[in-house]
Amino acid sequence: MTETSWDPSNALIFALSKFVAIPSVSSAREDCKQAAVWLKKCFSQLGADSYLVSSTENVNSLVVATFRGRPPAPGAPRRPRILFYGHYDVISAPPYGWTSDPFKLSGNNGALYGRGVSDDKGPTLAVAFAVSSLLSRRMLDVDVVMLVEGEEEAGSAGFKGLFETVKDRVGEIDCILVSNSFWIDDVTPCVTYGLRGVVHSSIEISSERPDVHSGVEGGAIVEPMVDMWVYAQFFMIQLN
């Protein structure tokens, strides 16, 4: 692979070049709309039943695609149903740190470069093409639902509301697959089989006494700042 070219016969790389060329920064609504429409069409061409979920709110559309596996054997339970979560939005690409156009796919020393190649346009297309390959060979024994949003880099604003409108169509899910994880190092991949998740919380500590001046009151007194420090140490121990 040269620095500026790749094998055009590789459909996945060709599709990725088109996807990367859309500067779908989360706040760029028109570009994100273009990316969502393009991705929906790509999923459809790969054999999925795909559609867009939009809102009157100022949020980017959700792309949903379902690849249906082959029918189960007579008397067998229903096909397992796997949900893939990804996102088509990217963060902005400031000029410093780039040796090539971030919105033009390029190759160098066996690696591909472009905004979204690893987070998360590349992994999303890789999964879709892999599932499509199994589907075309009648080897897909599960249903795969791909849920791809356009607000992940901006805190997933509106994602919950959009999903609520289609959760019945998505159906019962047996397993969730995400691609926002890490390799062991630059050359050693791994399979991440569990995530801790994220908990957002606010803690407020108050005292029945008013603020006092340490230089006047003196002595050992109980104040909220001390309790805050104790709680902080407790949470750090739990995280480690």
- Overall shape: globular
- Spans of at least 5 consecutive residues whose pLDDT stays below 50 are 1-6
**Total count of helical runs of at least 4 residues:** 7
Oligomer: single chain
Distance between the termini: 43 Å
- Beta-strand share of residues: 5-15%
Number of domains: 2
Describe the structure.
With 240 residues, this protein is of the alpha/beta class. The protein has a five-stranded mixed β-sheet with strand order 1-2-6-3-7. A two-stranded antiparallel ribbon has the order 4-5. It has two domains: 8-178, 3-Layer(aba) Sandwich (Aminopeptidase), CATH 3.40.630; 204-239, no CATH class. The radius of gyration is 24 Å and the shape is globular. The two termini are 43 Å apart. The protein has seven helices and seven strands; from the N terminus they run ααβββββαβααβαα. It has helices at 11-20, 29-45, 121-136, 159-164, 167-170, 214-217, 224-239, and strands at 49-53, 62-67, 81-87, 106-108, 111-113, 143-149, 175-178. The model is unreliable at 1-6 (pLDDT under 50). A hairpin with an 8-residue loop joins strand 1 and strand 2 (62-67). This is Putative di-and tripeptidase DUG2. It is an enzyme of class 3 (hydrolase). It comes from Thanatephorus cucumeris (strain AG1-IB / isolate 7/3/14) (Lettuce bottom rot fungus). GO terms for molecular function: metal ion binding; peptidase activity. Keywords: Hydrolase, Metal-binding, Protease.
What's the structural blueprint in terms of helices and strands?
Layout: H1 11-20, H2 29-45, E1 49-53, E2 62-67, E3 81-87, E4 106-108, E5 111-113, H3 121-136, E6 143-149, H4 159-164, H5 167-170, E7 175-178, H6 214-217, H7 224-239
Parallel strand pairs: 3-6, 3-7
Antiparallel strand pairs: 1-2, 2-6, 4-5
